[in-house]
Amino acid sequence: MTAPKRLRRDAQDSVARLRAAALEIFRTNGLDASLYEIARAAGVSIGTLYHRFGTREGLIDAVIPEIADCRLQALRATVLGHEIAHATAHHGGERMSEAMVMQTGGSLLGAGLSKTDPKWQAAASTAYGLGTQVGRELPHSRAQESEADHIGLIYMSRAGYDPEEAVKFWQRFKEYSAQQGGDTTLSFLRTHPTDDVRIEQLKKWLPEAKAQK
Ligand SMILES: [Zn+2]
């Protein structure tokens, strides 16, 4: 009599393990990550993965809201840290509103993931009800930008976020910018041209930021 119940629990366990593994591996390696690797990490066969989720798309659908949420949180921490740093360093100019930050986030989620762009966009829009309002931010000098990046990275780390996410953010931002050909309604992109210098500097400051935790 206990056999059916046992089977059901095993099935639930494998689904939970597959979701956890997919969350971790899709986050790290992108949505094109190997399904074999996910199955292996979950301790099940690839057949079980297909049996439980049908296809890659099915598995992605099961975890994408959580992945998008993680990314948005990290992105929000990066951009807000940077903007707060401009304010505390008295750089002047107008700070971005939270709505602008989230608008930026929605647009950037899909950068570098062209095949699955609509999924990211949809997940972000659902989670945050992103609008299309465009705010205004005045550009700062290059020196002020560096300072805001540096201080923002430290703020972000102190707030409990992984400062590596800031590097990923600017890398995605660079890809997004390239995709858009520099033509965008996003004020943050217009006022924050991204380049390798910015990314290299952030990498250099990572150990200092990590020590703030
Ligand atoms: Zn700035």
Produce a short descriptive summary.
The chain has 213 residues and is mostly helical.
Describe this protein's structure.
72% of the residues lie in helices and 0% in strands. It is built from 10 helices and no strands. It has helices at residues 3-29, 35-42, 46-53, 56-88, 98-108, 117-128, 142-158, 164-180, 187-191, 196-210. The radius of gyration is 20 Å and the shape is elongated. It binds zinc ion (ZN). Zinc ion binds next to α4 and α7. Zinc ion (ZN) is lined by residues 82, 86, 140, 145, 148, 192.
Task: Supply the key terms.
mainly alpha, Arc Repressor Mutant, subunit A, about 70% helix, elongated, binds zinc ion, about 210 residues, about 0% strand
- Nearest-integer average pLDDT: 77
Largest sheet: none
Distance between the termini: 52 Å
Hetero groups: zinc ion
Mind sketching the topology for me?
Blueprint: H1 3-29, H2 35-42, H3 46-53, H4 56-88, H5 98-108, H6 117-128, H7 142-158, H8 164-180, H9 187-191, H10 196-210
The structure holds zinc ion.
